[in-house]
Design a protein that fits this description.
elongated, alpha+beta, about 350 residues, five-stranded mixed sheet, binds dinuclear copper ion, 12 strands
C-alpha cells in the first residue's frame, strides 16, 4: 500500500509536515554537494597548477585579501542561517502540540506498543487513526527507553521511562504505514513495530464501533481514584479533605512547600503519585504514601487523564507544549530532580 513517493527509496509523504522534512533534507544534501564538488575540483586543479617545478624554489609572498575573506565568511554565514531557520521551523511545527486533536495514549514495553484511544479501545502494535485529523500521542514506557517512529509521517520521539513525552501528526493519505521502535531496546528491538492505519472518517467510526471499548481512560482513572486505590478518601472535597485539591489545577502554577512553584502538567501529576514527598503543595502535610510499584504505567495514564478531567480538560485539548527532548528540563527549585531516574528499567 505504500506506493512510491516522489523520491525513490523514500517512504511516502503521508503527514502534513512530511514535505517540510524532505525539503530540509534535500536542501542539506544540495548544500553539501555544492561545497563538496568545487572543493574536490579545486584540490585537483591546485595540485596540478602548483606542482613542484624546480627543487627548493622560493615561493612568492602572499598577502591576505579582505574582500575574499569577507565573501567566504558572509556566504557560509547566510547558508548556515538558512539551515538553522529551516530546522527551527520544522522543529517548531513538529514538537509544538496543536490545540485540538484526538488524544491517544501509548505505553511502550519490551517489545510491543500498547495503545489506547480516548474512547477506550485498545490495540497492540497497531494504530488506527482518521485521515486529516490532528492526532496527539502521550507516551511513556514500562521498562526501558524506546522511540516511537513513523517514517511516512516523518516524525518520531523518544519514549522515556518515568515521564511523558508527546508526538503529533496529521495524516493526509489513507493507507497502511510502518511503525517502528527507533531506539535499541534489547533483544527483540527489531520486532517492536507494526502498522499505522489511516482511514477515512466513516471507516474509522466503523472501526471504533466494531471494537470493544471498555472503560475510557477517564472512567478507568475515576475507578482507580474512587475505588481501587482509595485516592478519594483524602482528595475528595469536604471536611475530610486532607490531600491537595485536584479540581482546576491542570496547567496552573502550584505553590510548593518551601517556596518553589511548579506547573501542574501531566509529568507533575504522574510524579506526585509516584513520589508524593518530592513536590508537596503549600499548605499540606507530606502524608501521602507513594504509589510506586502499585500502579502500572497504563493505570497512571488513566489516573492522569481523570485528574485532568477534574480541571475540565477534555482529552485532546491543549497538551503541554514542551518538546520531547527539552521537557526533561530541570524541575523547579526544590524538586527531587532525579526522582524519575530510570529505576524502573529492566525489572
Ligand atoms: Cu523498543 Cu527498540
Amino acid at each position: 500500500m505504500q506506493t512510491n513517493s516522489w523520491v525513490p527509496l523514500f517512504p511516502e509523504q503521508a503527514s502534513e509536515f512530511a514535505w517540510q522534512v524532505d525539503y530540509l533534507y534535500f536542501y542539506l544534501i544540495l548544500v553539501s554537494v555544492a561545497f563538496t564538488i568545487p572543493i574536490a575540483a579545486a584540490v585537483f586543479f591546485f595540485a596540478v597548477k602548483y606542482r613542484e617545478r624546480e627543487k627548493y624554489a622560493t615561493p612568492e609572498e602572499m598577502h591576505g585579501s579582505i574582500v575574499l575573506e569577507t565573501v567566504w565568511s558572509i556566504i557560509p554565514f547566510i547558508i548556515s542561517m538558512t539551515i538553522f531557520l529551516g530546522g527551527a521551523i520544522v522543529y517548531y511545527t513538529q514538537y509544538r502540540m496543536p490545540d485540538d486533536g484526538m488524544e491517544i495514549y501509548v505505553v511502550g514495553k519490551q517489545w510491543m506498543w500498547k495503545i489506547q484511544h480516548e474512547s477506550g479501545q485498545r490495540e497492540i502494535n497497531e494504530l488506527h487513526v482518521p485521515v486529516n485529523t490532528n492526532v496527539k500521542l502521550t507516551m511513556t514506557t514500562e521498562d526501558v527507553l524506546h522511540d516511537f517512529s513513523i517514517p511516512a509521517f516523518r516524525t518520531k520521539a523518544d519514549v522515556v521511562p518515568g515521564r511523558y513525552t508527546y508526538l503529533w501528526f496529521r495524516p493526509t493519505k489513507p493507507g497502511k504505514y510502518h511503525l517502528f521502535c527507533a531506539e535499541y531496546c534489547g533483544l527483540n528491538h527489531s520486532g517492536m513495530g507494526g502498522y499505522v492505519y489511516v482511514m477515512e472518517q466513516p471507516e474509522f467510526e466503523a472501526w471504533l464501533q466494531g471494537n470493544v471499548s471498555g472503560q475510557t481512560p477517564v472512567e478507568q482513572g475515576r475507578d482507580l481514584f474512587e475505588n481501587k486505590l482509595g485516592c478519594a478518601s483524602c482528595h475528595a472535597g469536604g471536611p475530610q479533605q486532607r490531600g491537595a485539591q485536584l479540581e482546576g489545577i491542570f496547567g496552573k502554577e502550584i505553590k510548593l512547600v518551601g517556596g518553589g512553584t511548579v506547573i501542574a502538567d501531566d509529568n507533575y501529576i504522574r510524579e506526585s503519585i509516584l513520589n508524593p514527598g518530592g513536590q508537596v503543595v503549600a499548605g499540606y502535610q507530606p502524608i501521602m504514601p507513594t504509589f510506586k510499584g502499585q500502579v502500572t504505567e497504563e493505570q497512571l495514564v488513566a489516573l492522569v487523564a481523570y485528574i485532568k478531567s477534574l480541571s475540565g480538560v477534555e482529552p485532546g485539548a491543549a497538551a503541554p507544549t514542551t518538546p520531547p527532548a527539552a521537557n526533561t528540563a530541570a524541575p523547579t527549585s526544590n524538586s527531587t530532580g532525579g526522582a524519575n531516574s530510570n529505576t524502573q528499567g529492566g525489572n
